[in-house]
Amino acid sequence: RQFLQEAGIMFPMLGLLIALKGTKLWDRLQREGRLFPASEHGDPFLTTNFIPLRMSKQALETNYVHLLHTLYSEEHFRTCFANFIKQVDRKKISRHSAPASLTQLRSQRLFFLASGLRILRYYLFNANKSKRSLLGFVLKQALTKGLVGIPLALEALVQFETYNHFVRHHQLTH
Questions:
Q1: CB-based contact 102:108 (threshold 8 Å)
Q2: Is the pTM of this model over 0.70?
Q3: What is the DSSP secondary structure assignment for residue 114, as one 8-state letter?
Q4: Phi/psi zone of residue 73: left (φ > 0), alpha (ψ -120 to 50 degrees), beta?
Q5: What percent of the chain has pLDDT over 90?
Q6: How far is residue 76's CA from residue 33's CA, in Å, rounded to a whole number?
Q7: 81, 10 Cβ separation under 8 angstroms
Q8: d(CA 35, CA 51)
Q9: Closest-CA residue to 112 (of 121, 122, 103, 124)
Q10: Count of H helices and E strands in the chain?
């Protein structure tokens, strides 16, 4: 967690290991009797298809869900975004990069404006007080990099809401 925060990695990709049929791992787990019956596939985001060696499957999944709640929390996102934006060197952002082009190209400005307004409307009128505070925090941090920071902030807010919503609403309890 500390590494992710210091590096400004807002949305790490997480998943549980799934043993795939035909691999050495599958063969070994099958020999050891640690595969679940009819477990060829499985859902790498929510469960594994084998019995872990040093803990129960339930303990693994419970700890995994706790990690998801931690890493996709508002607190973690705030810290990561602040560190991410500090690392942005706007002088090194190409004029042709997505963030720069959104603020410079006339044809893109209307799209950016409309998308930005939808995001702002959500955070201002549909979200709770905590999310409104988050919006203010992220925009304030982003503006330290000028206009280039705004598209970065809006994209990060959309991604945060997506991951945070998934963890909160898909029966991921810990």
A1: yes
A2: yes
A3: H
A4: beta
A5: 36
A6: 39
A7: yes
A8: 6
A9: 103
A10: 8, 0
